[in-house]
């Protein structure tokens, strides 16, 4: 399953945007209002839970400074990645596309597609406000 957000315009340079996303504590600002729990476990991992949902631990999987940051599920049960691709528009403005990629059976994909789409769209919308 692949879910991509529309491009989010951020009023920060490509480098500033990357550095913001690379500091995992900043993801708290991007989370939906129905966040139930958010905790940075270390510089490469954080966990969050939305009301009525299980806790999810995300960890940095890969990064290309100032261009891309890849986060992935720390658990093998639900293998997925959340990738931020950052492009420069001008010196103090950048665009970010968030991509969610996961390997799920058809039934699971059907159940989680709408909540995941809403979640990554909320992250993207809130990214425009930083």
List the helices and strands and how they pair.
Layout: E1 2-4, E2 8-10, H1 14-22, H2 27-30, E3 35-42, E4 45-50, E5 56-64, E6 68-73, E7 80-90, E8 93-102, H3 106-127
Antiparallel strand pairs: 1-8, 2-8, 3-4, 4-5, 5-6, 6-7, 7-8
Structural write-up:
The protein is of the alpha+beta class and about 130 residues long. Helix content is about 25%, strand content about 45%. The chain has a single domain, classed as Alpha-D-Glucose-1,6-Bisphosphate, Chain A, domain 4 (2-Layer Sandwich). Strands 1, 2, 3, 4, 5, 6, 7 and 8 form an eight-stranded antiparallel sheet that branches. A hairpin with a 3-residue loop joins β5 and β6. The longest helix has 22 residues. The termini are far apart. The model has no long low-confidence stretch (mean pLDDT about 95).
Strand content: 35-45%
The Rg value, from CA coordinates, equals 14 Å
Q: What is the average per-residue confidence, as pLDDT, rounded to a whole number?
A: 95
Structural class: alpha+beta
Largest sheet: 8 strands, antiparallel
Helical segment tally? 3
CATH superfamily: START domain
Give me the strand/helix succession: EEHHEEEEEEH
Q: Report low-confidence residues grouped into runs of 5 or more.
A: none
Q: How many separate domains make up the residues?
A: 1
- Supply the CATH architecture: 2-Layer Sandwich
Which CATH class?
Alpha Beta
CATH topology: Alpha-D-Glucose-1,6-Bisphosphate, Chain A, domain 4
Helix content: 25-40%
- Terminus-to-terminus distance: 28 Å
Count every beta strand, where a strand is a DSSP E run of 2 or more residues.
8
Principal-axis shape equals globular
